[in-house]
Amino acid sequence: MALAARLWRFLPWGRRVFPGPWLSRGVAGSRGLCCTRRLRGSEVMGNLGAFKRSLLLSALPYLGFEAYQVFSQAAMVHATAKVFRVEEILEQADYLYESGETEKLYQLLTQYKESEDAELLWRLARASRDIAQLSGTSEEEKKLLIYEALEYAKRALEKNESSFAAHKWYAICISDVGDYEGIKAKIANAYIIKEHFEKAIELNPKDATSIHLMGIWCYTFAEMPWYQRRIAKVLFATPPSSTYEEALGYFHRAEQVDPNFYSKNLLLLGKTYLKLHNKKLAAFWLMKAKDYPAHTEEDKQRL
């Protein structure tokens, strides 16, 4: 209505039009004389119609600009409200995660599974995987949840390739899916997994979990059974490989970034030292793992 009122003031029919001096004055002729004449009725009406049309055409750009401003402001308000809403959901999700409320977290986030927000999607991937790990989850449900988690992680990565967490959870979910797709797929996926863990560390070198997971990757291929090594050599010219020393380096690095952040990191430090025949340091880290307070079901099962 305000826009219409502004336009109305610009148009001749929006107010009384009084003929000003310019209607009755002529222009200076070649002789410099001022020529005047009275306009006939038809001439006045014709000129007035042309005047109205010109004013209307002049007002259209103004109308378009005003409309653009109105729609832009409305879009900005909508976008701000949307961002605020996502932030609110993420805060609630992080609180539930820290509280160990796995099922409530999953129920919350699945309401937004069609979201295009990468931060929300990787959290949903994590929540789906956590539900799959619960002891009360059947094997059939677990498989469905693992593949569901991979889909969410993939979408998160597509939405934001600069998200270290999206890279991390995409790699984790690919690793989980490998348990259902055989040794060939598992070995082939190893290259992809390593690539995404390394990218996650590059994007956020202070994330202890990504560093720890890179350590697990190294540990896994350091202790790969001989028959799997043989299969890998048959399938790939240069199969993935690593050493216990390399794994140990990542586990220590994770501990330096965030001391005592995860019971499994302590446990694997102990196990890796055992593999390297250092019983003293193995005992030290295994005792730390044993004394670690159990926060999650995974901690209870591991300890």
* Class per helix and strand makeup: mainly alpha
| SSE pattern, N- to C-terminal | HEEHHHHHHHHHHHH
Assign a percent range to the helix content: over 70%
H/I helix tally: 13
- Span between N and C termini? 69 Å
Outline the low-pLDDT stretches: 1-46, 74-81
Query: Assembly state here?
Result: single chain
Average pLDDT works out at 79
What summary fits the major beta sheet? 2 strands, antiparallel
Basic shape: globular
Strand content: under 5%
Structural Rg: 35 Å
Number of strands: 2
Largest sheet, spatial ordering of strands: 1-2
Protein name: Regulator of microtubule dynamics protein 1
GO cellular component, one term: mitotic spindle pole
Subcellular location: Cytoplasm, Cytoskeleton, Spindle pole
Family: Belongs to the RMDN family.
Task: Name its key features.
disordered N terminus; RMD1-3_a_helical_rpt; two-stranded antiparallel ribbon
Detail the topology: elements first, then pairings.
Blueprint: H1 2-10, E1 25-28, E2 34-36, H2 41-98, H3 102-110, H4 118-133, H5 139-159, H6 164-177, H7 182-203, H8 208-222, H9 226-235, H10 244-257, H11 263-275, H12 279-290, H13 297-302
Subcellular location: Cytoplasm, Cytoskeleton, Spindle pole
Keywords: Cytoplasm, Cytoskeleton, Microtubule, Repeat, TPR repeat
InterPro entries: RMD1-3_a_helical_rpt, TPR-like_helical_dom_sf
Task: Characterise the protein shown here.
With 303 residues, the protein is mainly alpha-helical. Helix content is 72%, strand content 2%. A two-stranded antiparallel sheet has the order 1-2. Helix 4 packs antiparallel against helix 5, helix 8 runs antiparallel to helix 10 and helix 10 runs antiparallel to helix 11. The radius of gyration is 35 Å and the shape is globular. The N terminus is likely disordered.
